[in-house]
Amino acid sequence: MGINANRFARWVLAAVVGALFLATSATGSWADLVTNDVSLSYAAPGGPTQALNNLGTLTASSINGTGTGAGGNGTPVGSTLMSATFTVSAAAQASPVFSGMKLHWVQKITADSCPANYMGKAPTFPVIDPPSGGWDYEYVNPATRSGGIAPEYSVFQPNTGPWYYNAAGDAKFSTPGQSYTIQDQPGNCPAPGTTSFVTFLVAEPTQFNPGNSGALQPGQFLLLAGFSWQAPGGSNPVALSPGIEASDFNTALTNGGYNNISATYFGIVTVPEPATIALIAVGGLALLTRRRKAA
Hints:
This protein is 16% helix and 35% strand. By secondary structure, the chain is α+β, with helices and mostly antiparallel strands. Strands 8, 9, 14, 15, 16 and 17 form a six-stranded mixed beta sheet that branches. A five-stranded antiparallel beta sheet has the order 1-6-7-13-12. A three-stranded mixed beta sheet has the order 5-4-18, with no helix packed on it. Strand 4 and strand 5 form a beta hairpin.
């Protein structure tokens, strides 16, 4: 994470299980990637496991800055801008799955030629970005990690987990159950140095079923879909498999000071029993009715 962007690439992850292909525009300035693997399974206690194969669509772009003035692309020279948005499908919005989970972005740095300090020194890679408690530069007094979090980093810290954004950042960039956006703008390392990132959309369970050994448990999150990118840019973004990335994410969590949570690439989201969901819906409707009458 950081403030800065030098490449113009764009790709798309579409959510239906299937193939992977790459297409480049005639100008060569855009590169589109489409993969079909954003899916999960959910179940109510005592109920059957159901597959949701079309959770949504993930689009992402990485732009090398050519300047903010006339003729530039709006991103400062010497920085790379990454932006991604996950749009939830109509099928997922109509399902009960969001009654049993929250979606977040999680990012790790896998290599860095000019690393930021964490606890007064360069971190061991891979490392969650930002690490527990934040990077030193996120504080008003970076050298002593004191003075509180600087205002410009208030969407990241303080945080309750390894999520890229804290609750304030989630509220600013996402609409729960509909769309989730992440942006990062790191300054580029002096040539020929690079910084390599992996960014994933993940599910944090909010309901649990101890009787289902296949269900997500407290202290776990589910990797859904992600991609790698680099600052400065120089190659197309690459879609990544959750199964391949889970182990490395757990190493990154440890290196980032998160010892009580782990990443997994398989797990069933527990949702409330249908009767409970119905009661919640009726309660919400009743509250809305009372508010309207009061108005």
